[in-house]
What we know:
Elements: H1 4-9, H2 11-19, H3 28-63, H4 69-104, E1 124-129, H5 142-149, E2 152-153, H6 154-161, E3 167-168, H7 170-189, E4 194-196, E5 201-203, H8 204-210, E6 221-222, H9 228-231, E7 235-237, H10 242-247, E8 253-255, E9 261-270, E10 289-299, H11 304-321, E11 326-330, E12 342-350, E13 355-364, H12 368-373, E14 376-378, E15 388-389, E16 391-399, H13 400-410, E17 418-419, E18 433-434
Parallel strand pairs: 4-9, 8-14
Antiparallel strand pairs: 1-11, 2-3, 5-7, 6-7, 9-10, 10-16, 11-12, 12-13, 13-16, 14-15, 17-18
Amino acid sequence: MHDLRTFVDNIDAMRAHLARRGVGEGDPVFARVRQLAGERRQAIIQGEALKRDLNLASGKIARLPKGSAEQLSARDEARLLGDRAKAFDTAQKNTEAELEDLLLRLPNLPEPSVPDGVDETANVEVRRWGEMPSMDFTPKEHHTLGEALGILDFKRASELSGPRFTVLWGVGAALERALVTFMLDLHTRRHGYTEVYPPVIARDHCLRGTGSLPKFEKDLFRLQLEDRAERGYDLYLIPTAEVPLTNLHAGELLDGASLPRRYTAYSQCFRSEAGAYGKDTRGLIRQHQFDKVELFQLTTPEESDAAHEALTAHAEAVLQALGLHYRVMLLCAGDMGFSARKTYDLEVWLPGHGAFREISSCSNFGDFQARRAGLKYRPAQDPKAKPRLLHTLNGSALAVGRTVVAILEQYQQADGSVTVPEALRPYLHGLERITGR
């Protein structure tokens, strides 16, 4: 979320920055924010003036003869002053509530190095790794391979839960589990992350903290529970472990000496994919339920750019260890996620699709999420310093289902079998080839 004072004091610059994110310069939100900020300021000024008058009136009442007509009249006047002061307090709260709602719906500002553009066609390739697999046969798509091998079952999953779900059988289920363990081992043992196993149900304030609410409520699965009125909050299935990880320290004041904090988490993730019907309807690319291993960091503003590069390298390390050909794309301003100020997408090559497809997004959010979630620290070198907002970063490392897709397609053989990457064989009891169940 944007800082109100910074937004209002620099509204023309904010308008120009947000135009890069697709918010039109003529969007009425700018005029409304300016208007509400003025109303809030007047409510504060007039409310404080009335409170000063009320204090003077209270002092006057104390000096008048107790029970006298003058004192009773002064009390009536003080009561009117108090009512008017409360009215301005209410007006201030109402304007602040609307301002917060408006600012919660505006995306983060792009970092200066982010290229301009409205969609993926303006993204910039940064680098590639590995060789594109050479095949002397026509490669198949992962869903065709998986069904033939008996490890992916879309028909039964649809009967159980509807479209965009999958049942994994035998080696398919073992491959999914092996990838999760392999990724967590890599990030905890080599990259120094602390493993976390978070809940997959989160309160609404946690989703506001990351930017999922209120903007993307249609993409979430909200639980319909009868005790909502008593709880006073909604519960959602998490779309990513980023949600609980970001909120682990919400409202706390961290010691700067404890930074950076690096967390990694496996979780099941749930997305309604609202508006995505007709896209990737077959296979594991776009599911309502999927597994993911997430990387998350809390850093100081001075260290966040370097942390972003390091986190991206940690995600790349998974693909490199598995021997999967991929490229790194710097996203343009119009293609970034709502909360990001800079994002690298890792896109893995899928021979069956004949295209690169996203397998990870690694983003630096600056203080955008920290302001929403109340994430602060006190500099270690100055224990009396004013608390400062942290910077948050996260990335998939990796989306497990899409990694299964990449392995099936890049390691497929002419006879329909699939070679198991060497790095995974210890996690699959030495299995070298998937030939069916």
